[in-house]
C-alpha cells in the first residue's frame, strides 16, 4: 500500500485522483473510483442546478460509502452560474472534500473551512500554487503542459513543474497531466508529488459515462493526436484532434477571434460527442496520455493494477539500481 501525505490528509486508500471533468464527473464514475480506493470528484457544473447537484451527491452515496468530493470550476462568464448556491449545496450535503479550479477560490474558503471541508486547488504554475497555499488550501493539483483541458500559458511540462512545485510548497501536491499508469505514478512520487490526478485515463474506463466510441477513439489515438486551441486568445486548451479542433486552429492562424469560433466550441456540441458518440460534433478534451492508453478497464482494475505495478517498480526495478 502506498501511503503519502495526500492519502493521510484526505483520508483515501490510494494516492490516485479522478479530478473534475465536464460532462464526465458523474455518480457512476466517481463511486467506482471511490470503491477502488481512489478519490473521485463530481463535477458540480455538469449538474444544471444546485438542487441537481444535491441529487447527484445522494446518488453517489447510494453507490459508495467511501470518501468522494465535488469539483467547482470558477471561470469568467457573461452569465455566471450561481456559485454560492452550488457551494451551499455542497456544504449542506455533507461533502468533506472540494476540488477548486479556475479563478482564485479565496472568497469561498472560509465557508468550506467552517464546514470542515478540505480543499484541493488545481493550478498550472508554481506561482499560482504558492498563492493557493498562502490563502489556506489543503493541497494543490498541479497540471503540466501535457494535460487535457487548460494547461495555462507557461508551457511547462510535468518533468520540470512537479519538482519545482515540490521544492517550493509545504502542502501535499498532486501531479496531473500525462499520467495514465504505474510508471507515471512512480515517476510523480519520485519527483516530489504525493499522488496523481488522471482525467483522460479515467474517461477511458468502463464506468465512465461517455459514449463507447469516444473510449475506443482514445485507445486508437496516439500522443500526437491533440490540438491546442485558443492559443492566440491566451486561454490555451488541449483537446482531441478532430475536424472541429483543426478548423478552430486554422481560423486562429488566419487571425480569427473568439466570435469566429464561438459556435464551433460551444459546450452543447462537445456534450454531443460524449453522449452520442459523434466524434466530430464538437471539441472534446483529451490529453497526450492517449498514447499510453490501450484498454478500457474497470476503475477497480485500473487502480489495482497501477498500485500493484507501482509497488513492483519501487521494490524491484528501482531497487536493483542501488548497489
UniProtKB/TrEMBL annotation:
Highest taxon, organism lineage: Bacteria
Q: Keyword annotations for this protein?
A: Flavoprotein, FMN, Monooxygenase, Oxidoreductase
EC number from the UniProt entry: 1.13.12.16
Q: Which InterPro entries match?
A: Aldolase_TIM (IPR013785), NMO (IPR004136)
Q: Name one GO molecular function term.
A: nitronate monooxygenase activity
What Gene3D superfamilies does the entry give?
A: Aldolase class I
Q: Supply the enzyme class, top level.
A: oxidoreductase
**Which Pfam families does the entry link to?**
NMO
Name listed for the protein in its UniProt record: Nitronate monooxygenase
What species does this protein belong to? Nocardia macrotermitis
Lineage per the UniProt record: Bacteria, Bacillati, Actinomycetota, Actinomycetes, Mycobacteriales
Amino acid at each position: 500500500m502506498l501511503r503519502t501525505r495526500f492519502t493521510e490528509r484526505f483520508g483515501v486508500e490510494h494516492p490516485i485522483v479522478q479530478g473534475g471533468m465536464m460532462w464526465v464527473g458523474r455518480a457512476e464514475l466517481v463511486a467506482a473510483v471511490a470503491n477502488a480506493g481512489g478519490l473521485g470528484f463530481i463535477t458540480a457544473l455538469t449538474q444544471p442546478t444546485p438542487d441537481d447537484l444535491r441529487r447527484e451527491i445522494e446518488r453517489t452515496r447510494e453507490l459508495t460509502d467511501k470518501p468522494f468530493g465535488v469539483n467547482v470550476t470558477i471561470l469568467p462568464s457573461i452569465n455566471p452560474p450561481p456559485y454560492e448556491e452550488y457551494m451551499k449545496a455542497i456544504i449542506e450535503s455533507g461533502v468533506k472534500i472540494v476540488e477548486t479550479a479556475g479563478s482564485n477560490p479565496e472568497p469561498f474558503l472560509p465557508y468550506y473551512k467552517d464546514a470542515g471541508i478540505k480543499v484541493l486547488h488545481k493550478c498550472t504554475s508554481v506561482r499560482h500554487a504558492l498563492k493557493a497555499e498562502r490563502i489556506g488550501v489543503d493541497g494543490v493539483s498541479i497540471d503540466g503542459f501535457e494535460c487535457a483541458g487548460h494547461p495555462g500559458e507557461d508551457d511547462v511540462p510535468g518533468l520540470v513543474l512537479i519538482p519545482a512545485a515540490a521544492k517550493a510548497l509545504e502542502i501535499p501536491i498532486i501531479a496531473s497531466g500525462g499520467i495514465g499508469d504505474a510508471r507515471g505514478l512512480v515517476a510523480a512520487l519520485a519527483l516530489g508529488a504525493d499522488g496523481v490526478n488522471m482525467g483522460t485515463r479515467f474517461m477511458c474506463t468502463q464506468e465512465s459515462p461517455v459514449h463507447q466510441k469516444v473510449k475506443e477513439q482514445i485507445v486508437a489515438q496516439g500522443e500526437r493526436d491533440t490540438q491546442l486551441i485558443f492559443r492566440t486568445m491566451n486561454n490555451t486548451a488541449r483537446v482531441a484532434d478532430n475536424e472541429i479542433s483543426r478548423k478552430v486552429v486554422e481560423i486562429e492562424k488566419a487571425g480569427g477571434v473568439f466570435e469566429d469560433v464561438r459556435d464551433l466550441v460551444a459546450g452543447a456540441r462537445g456534450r454531443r460527442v460524449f453522449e452520442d458518440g459523434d466524434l466530430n460534433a464538437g471539441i472534446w478534451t483529451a490529453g497526450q496520455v492517449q498514447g499510453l492508453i490501450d484498454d478500457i478497464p474497470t476503475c477497480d482494475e485500473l487502480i489495482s493494477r497501477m498500485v500493484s505495478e507501482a509497488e513492483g517498480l519501487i521494490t524491484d526495478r528501482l531497487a536493483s539500481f542501488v548497489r
